[in-house]
Write a structure and sequence with these properties.
- 7% of the residues are buried.
- By secondary structure, the protein is mostly helical.
Length: 113
């Protein structure tokens, strides 16, 4: 049985990661917004280089592979228990992003534009 201090530290790590990731995302969005407003004030049209299809495929494949490896690890370690949820969640998100990519790609091919 791990010590109480180790359990507390292990439970705080995801919280710190989520808060740090949220802060990074917040400041990225804030500075990106300010940059766009400055470009608009100068009369320039801000370009959006974000490719949703590529991002959904990339994120979907990463989450799918992480989910599969976590599910396999927890099934081998503990059998089917609540720990397997930590792998099923990213696995299902990854599968849904890859399905979104394929559906969006088909819709784009069938679009007459």
């Amino acid at each position: 049985m791990p010590s109480t201090a180790a359990q507390i530290i292990v439970s705080i790590i995801p919280i710190v990661g989520i808060v740090t990731g949220g802060a990074v995302l917040f400041f990225y969005m804030l500075w990106n917004h300010k940059q766009r407003m400055m470009l608009i004030d100068k009369g320039l049209v801000p370009q959006s280089p974000f490719d949703l299809l590529t991002f959904s495929l990339f994120a979907g494949l990463i989450l799918f592979s992480i989910g599969v490896s976590l599910v396999v690890f927890f099934v081998m370690k503990e059998g089917f228990s609540y720990g397997v949820l930590s792998g099923i969640i990213p696995l299902s998100i990854g599968v849904s992003l890859v399905v979104f990519f394929s559906v969006r790609l088909r819709m784009k091919k069938n679009d007459p534009k």
